[in-house]
UniProtKB/TrEMBL annotation:
UniProt-recorded name of the protein: Lysine transporter LysE
Membrane topology qualifier: Multi-pass membrane protein
Regions crossing the membrane: 53-77, 121-139, 151-177, 189-207
Main location: membrane
Species of provenance: Shewanella inventionis
Taxonomic path: Bacteria, Pseudomonadati, Pseudomonadota, Gammaproteobacteria, Alteromonadales
Subcellular localization(s) per the UniProt record: Cell membrane
Key words, A-Z: Cell membrane, Membrane, Transmembrane, Transmembrane helix
Length: 212
C-alpha cells in the first residue's frame, strides 16, 4: 500500500476543493475550449496533466524541493514563465483573423495548445511549490513505502482527478460555447481572445510573489 487509507478521505476532499478553485490552469483550458472547440480543450487538458506528471516525478525524487529552496531559481522560473506567456500572447494577437482555423481542421492547433499548457504550468513556480508543500502533508509514517513512493502515488491520483475534472470542464464549456464557435464574428477574433488570455496569465505569474 502506497497511500494511507486513513488519510485518503481527507486527501480526496482536499483535492476536490482545490480543483474547484479557479486558477491559471482552469482559465487556459476553459478559454481554449471556448475559442477553438472541445478537441483543443482536451489536448490542453492532457498538456496540463503531462506537466503535473513531470512535477510529481520531480517532487518524488526531491528535485523540486531543491529548486523551491533556491530563491534565485524560483525567480528565474517566474520570469521565464511570464516571458513565455507574453510571447504566446503576442503571437496570438498579431495573428490575422484569416489565420483562425476551421473547426473541422484543428489538429495542429490542438498539438500547439498541448505544448503551451505543458510549458505554462512547468514554468509557473507556484505549481512547483504546490507539489513540494502539498503532497508531503499526506505522507504517512505508518506505511512501509518510502516518502518518495507515497508522493508519487499521491501525485498520480491528483493528476488523474485533475484530468477528469478538466475533461468535464471542457465538455461543459463545449456545450455552452457552441453558439460562439458557430459565430463567424467570434471566430474572426478568437486568436485575439486567446492572446488576451495568455497576457492575463503572464501578468498573473509576473505579479505574484513567490516565497520559498
Amino acid at each position: 500500500m502506497m497511500i494511507d487509507l486513513a488519510l485518503l478521505p481527507l486527501y480526496l476532499t482536499t483535492v476536490v476543493a482545490l480543483l474547484l478553485i479557479p486558477g491559471p490552469d482552469m482559465l487556459l483550458i476553459a478559454s481554449s475550449s471556448l475559442s477553438y472547440g472541445r478537441k483543443v480543450g482536451v489536448y490542453a487538458s492532457f498538456g496540463n496533466a503531462t506537466s503535473g506528471l513531470i512535477l510529481t516525478l520531480l517532487a518524488a525524487m526531491g528535485v523540486s524541493a531543491l529548486v523551491a529552496m533556491n530563491p534565485m531559481a524560483l525567480e528565474l522560473l517566474r520570469v521565464l514563465g511570464g516571458a513565455y506567456l507574453l510571447k504566446m500572447a503576442w503571437d496570438c494577437i498579431r495573428s490575422d483573423s484569416v489565420d483562425a482555423p476551421e473547426i473541422a481542421a484543428q489538429h495542429n492547433l490542438a498539438k500547439l495548445l498541448y505544448r503551451r499548457a505543458v510549458m505554462s504550468n512547468l514554468l509557473n513556480p507556484k505549481a512547483l511549490i504546490f507539489f513540494v508543500l502539498f503532497l508531503p502533508q499526506f505522507v504517512s509514517t505508518q506505511l512501509s513505502a518510502s516518502s518518495g513512493e507515497q508522493m508519487l502515488a499521491l501525485g498520480l491520483l491528483l493528476n488523474v482527478m485533475g484530468l477528469a475534472f478538466n475533461l468535464l470542464l471542457v465538455a461543459l464549456v463545449g456545450i455552452l460555447g457552441k453558439p460562439l464557435l458557430n459565430s463567424e464574428k467570434f471566430r474572426a477574433y478568437q486568436n485575439k481572445f486567446m492572446g488576451l488570455v495568455f497576457f492575463t496569465l503572464a501578468i498573473w505569474i509576473l505579479a505574484s510573489q513567490v516565497q520559498s
